[in-house]
Amino acid sequence: MNPVTKGGLWVLSLIVLTTTATGCVPRGAMANPGWTVLTAESGVVYTVLSTGRVVALDAAQGNELWSYPSEQAAKGGLGCSLPRTDSENAEAPLDAVYGIPVLTDELVLVASYDHHLYAFERSSGRIVWDFAADEAVIGGATVYDGVVYFGASDHRVYALDARTGESVWDEPFVTGHWVWGAPAVDENRVYVGSMDHYVYAIDRQSGVEEWRRSVGGSVPG
After folding, report:
1. How far is 156 from 111, CA to CA, in rounded Å?
2. β-bridge mates for residue 161, sequence order
3. Is the separation of the CB atoms in 114 and 84 below 8 Å?
4. Average pLDDT over residues 190-202
5. Which of 53, 91, 187, 194 is deepest in the core (most CB within 10 A)?
6. Beta strand 209-214 with 198-203: parallel, antiparallel or unpaired?
C-alpha cells in the first residue's frame, strides 16, 4: 500500500470514528432518518424529509409553500443529530420522524426522535411551541377536543393544550415501558399500548388509570 493510500484510509477511519462517537453526520444525511407519510388538508400537503426538513406543498401545483428549516439553512458543513436544547440554532433540522404529522385548524404537529413534539404554524412553518419529553417520541400524536395526546420512550403518556403546549394533566401517565404508538381517544378515555404487554385506559380529563389489560405481547402501535 503506497503512503498516499495509507494516509487516505487513516483520515477516512478518523472521520468514521468521529461520526460514530459524536453523532455528527454530513449535512443532508442522517444516521437515523426515520420514516413517515404525507398528510393533506385544505389544499396543502405536509411531509417530513429524511433530512429532518418539514415541508408544505401546494396540492394543486406542487409548489413549496414553506419548509423548516429553510432550504438555505439546511445546506453546508457538518451537522449533528443530537437532542435539541433551547440554546441550539432554531433553524436546525429535526431528528428522525416516524409518526404521521397531525393537523389542527392552525397547527402541524410533528413528533421527533430528538425528544420533542413540535407545533408548526400551518400558514408559515413558524414554530409556535415545542414540548420536550425525556426520551424519543416515536409515534404520532392524537388531537381530541383541543388536547394533544402522545406517548414517548420515557414510558409516559402526555396531554397538552394544543394552542399553548402546556400540560393538561397534573402529571404524565406512566406505563411500564416504551410507548411507541399514537393513542386512541374517545369522549371519556385515552387508550394506549405499551411495550410492557399492557393496554391502558386513562381518564381523559384527569389522566388517572381506569384499567389495564395484559395482552400477552408488546404493543408497538
Report:
1. 14
2. 147
3. yes
4. 97
5. 194
6. antiparallel
User: What's the confidence (pLDDT) of residue 115?
Assistant: 94
The span from the CA of 209 to the CA of 213, in Å, is 11
Instruction: Lay out the sheet containing 54-58: strands in order across.
Output: 39-41, 44-48, 54-58, 64-68
Residue 97 is classified by DSSP as B
Long-range contacts of residues 157-163, Cβ cutoff 8 Å, at least 24 apart: 157/183, 157/190, 157/192, 157/200, 157/202, 157/207, 158/117, 158/131, 158/133, 159/190, 159/204, 159/207, 160/117, 160/131, 162/104, 162/107, 162/109, 162/119
Amino acid identity of 183?
Answer: P
Dist. CA 192–CA 148, nearest whole Å: 14
Q: Is the pLDDT of residue 64 over 60?
A: yes
Q: In the chain, what are the domain boundaries?
A: 32-214
CA distance 154 to 168: 18
Distance between CA atoms of residues 215 and 191, nearest Å: 14
Q: What would the grid cell of residue 127 be?
A: 414554530
- CATH class of residue range 32-214: mainly beta
pLDDT in tens, 20-43: 333 444 444 444 566 788 999 999
Query: CA distances (Å), 132 to each of 31, 39, 45, 62, 97, in order?
Result: 21, 23, 26, 32, 15
Rounded to the nearest 5 percent, the helix, strand and coil shares of the chain are 10, 35, 55
**Reported pTM:** 0.78
Q: Alpha carbon of 189 to those of 76, 79, 114, 155, 208: distances in Å?
A: 47, 41, 28, 18, 10
